[in-house]
Design a protein that fits this description.
Layout: E1 14-16, E2 23-24, E3 37-39, E4 46-47, E5 60-62, E6 69-70, E7 83-85, E8 92-93, E9 106-109, E10 127-130, H1 149-153, H2 161-170, H3 185-191, H4 196-205, H5 220-226, H6 231-236, H7 271-280, E11 287-288, E12 291-292, H8 295-305
Parallel strand pairs: 1-3, 2-4, 4-6, 5-7, 6-8, 7-9, 9-10
Antiparallel strand pairs: 11-12
Helix pairs in contact: 2-4, 3-4, 3-5, 7-8
């Protein structure tokens, strides 16, 4: 159907688009104010931008399997649209494709990376359902950062918990998928200080993720410590047993040899490394009128040089 084919046909009430049509062109049904029923053929591949914009009488749309793309603003201002079914073949949804569809109550979506973003501001929405993943329980990852729909939902408080729970229900293997930085959903959850409810759902779906390392060689536990070690979150992810133990403090004056003061365990990535740093850099590790100098920086450098960070 060509661009603007039914532009502002304000008396058009229904249409059955015949088979073999693959594209609904730009502005094809723009401002068809009385259009309330559209039947799309199984051959449709693309619904172009603004195609059904301002079809204010349209109440439901069933996009057929085989449709690959719904472009920008395709259904914007369809204010009476209350039910929408998108098939798993849809690979992309354009910007504002369903904006101002203020009557939407039920939406069925494929598990693609940005699916939720198009419906997070719809106050009328009562049910958002995800289709099962056709790819062995794995989610599609967007090409640049490798984030899946679950990666995007987890650190974003605008997405209700029910979205995350339903993704995990339909695609349980998604919890183990990593983005290009090697981050699991739990990495993003903990590093972004997500709330208790989200953290528990993500942790319970795959508890072993607490020891998974990303490209920076960091685990979710490392991020938990960096963020201050919140006790409630720590209890959820089993971090209590992994907290850094209180250790012997070394307070050295310049040119003094490093010694183990007592038998307390040194758990700063192993006391051998700690003593090595003290030995090699003793000229820089001392206090001068109570001022701490250099040690923390040196120790981190040594950890990094050994790929321990």
């Amino acid at each position: 159907i060509g661009n603007g084919a039914f532009f502002e046909c304000k008396e058009l009430k229904s249409i059955i688009i015949p088979q073999n049509v693959e594209v609904v062109g730009e502005h094809a049904f723009y401002k068809c104010y009385t259009l309330s029923m559209v039947e799309l053929p199984s051959t449709i591949k693309i619904i172009k931008k603004d195609a059904f914009m301002w079809c204010i009488s349209l109440t439901s749309v069933k996009v057929p399997e085989g449709t690959e793309e719904i472009c920008d603003r395709a259904f914007r201002y369809c204010s009476e649209l209350n039910e929408l079914d998108l098939p798993p073949s849809v690979q992309g949804i354009g910007k504002g494709a369903f904006d101002e569809c203020d009557s939407l109550t039920k939406v069925t979506l494929p598990l693609i990376a940005d699916a939720c973003n198009h419906f997070r501001n719809h106050a009328s929405l009562a049910a958002l359902t995800f289709l099962p993943s056709p790819d062995d329980g794995l989610l599609q990852a967007e090409p640049l950062e490798g984030n899946t729909l679950l990666h995007r939902c987890v650190p974003n408080e605008q997405h209700p918990l029910i979205h995350i729970a339903d993704i995990l229900k339909e695609c349980p293997n998604a919890i183990q998928q990593r983005n290009t930085l090697g981050q699991t959903p739990l990495h993003l959850c903990v590093s972004n200080n997500m709330n208790v409810e989200v953290t528990k759902v993500i942790y319970d779906a795959w508890p072993e993720a607490v020891s998974a390392r990303n490209e920076l060689n960091k685990t979710p536990l490392d991020y938990w410590r960096e963020n201050g070690g919140d006790e409630v979150i720590g209890n959820i992810i089993g971090a209590e047993a992994s907290k850094t133990t209180i250790v012997t403090a070394f307070l050295l004056k310049k040119d003094k040899n490093a010694i183990i003061v007592d038998d307390d365990p040194i758990l700063l990535r192993g006391h051998h490394l700690l003593l090595e740093v003290l030995k090699d850099h003793n000229d820089k590790i001392y206090t001068n009128y109570g001022r701490r100098v250099e040690f923390g920086k040196l120790f981190l450098e040594q950890l990094h040089s050994r790929n321990m960070l």
